[in-house]
Amino acid sequence: MSYKLFYAPGSAAMGTRVMLEEIGAPYELLESTIDMDKPRPPEQLALNPNGWVPVLIWDDKAMYECAAITMFLGDRHPEANLAPAVNDPDRGLYLQTLVYFSNSVQNAFQLDYYPDRFADTQNDEASAQRRGIRRLCETWKVIDNQIGTNRWVLGERFSSVDIYLFMLTTWLRPSRGQPKVSEFPNVKRIADAVLSRESVGKVYKEWITGDTYGY
């Protein structure tokens, strides 16, 4: 069972790639970009007209949206133990957290990085960015409190939720006024543990520095 992945460094596709490494499935990376001034591959746009990555391809099927892909891969490869089964007591928290990451934390990032999507005029964009930064502080605090003293986000088990959390922490830029990972000690503890995994080292080894990791 093999996959193709439309991919760009610094994007959510990095989290999907870590998932594929954890699963051990063969995959091919298809080069794309998150640079708003550069064109996307026509083949990617045919599958995702939004122009975003990741886009995952298998057999004659394809899908986009990182959280959806994360759920799909976890369920398709139960042997990797990256997702609670549908009747597992942790399934609800697993789904809740992934959707919160996608709908709330990522939305806060978009407010800061892409304020033109939320403002009527260019003059209003700075206000959207300020709200995005405040929202990042709020949403990461919710996650930090949710984790509490857990070893991993879901408790004692490592899962794709931890990979997703780590991916999102790499997007934090204190130089823009965004919070540091260290402001959320439970988040940082898990992110540090994820960073030590072989799969993450392979995918992020040329990406992670003191500045890009948000410390």
List keywords for this structure.
4 strands, four-stranded mixed sheet, 8% strand, 215 residues, alpha+beta, Glutaredoxin, Glutathione S-transferase Yfyf (Class Pi), Chain A, domain 2, 47% helix
Describe this structure in words.
- With 215 residues, the protein is α+β, with helices and mostly antiparallel strands.
- It folds into 2 domains: 3-80, Glutaredoxin; 91-204, Glutathione S-transferase Yfyf (Class Pi), Chain A, domain 2 (Up-down Bundle), CATH 1.20.1050.
- The chain contains 8 helices and 4 strands.
- The protein has helices spanning 13-23, 42-47, 66-76, 91-113, 125-147, 160-169, 185-195, 198-204; strands spanning 3-7, 27-31, 55-58, 61-64.
- Strands 2-1-3-4 form a 4-stranded mixed β-sheet, covered by helices on one side.
- Helix 1 runs parallel beside helix 3, helix 3 (66-76) packs antiparallel against helix 4 (91-113) and helix 6 crosses helix 7.
Present the secondary structure layout:
Layout: E1 3-7, H1 13-23, E2 27-31, H2 42-47, E3 55-58, E4 61-64, H3 66-76, H4 91-113, H5 125-147, H6 160-169, H7 185-195, H8 198-204
Parallel strand pairs: 1-2
Antiparallel strand pairs: 1-3, 3-4
Summarize the structure.
With 215 residues, the chain is an alpha+beta fold. It has helices at residues 13-23, 42-47, 66-76, 91-113, 125-147, 160-169, 185-195, 198-204, and strands at residues 3-7, 27-31, 55-58, 61-64.
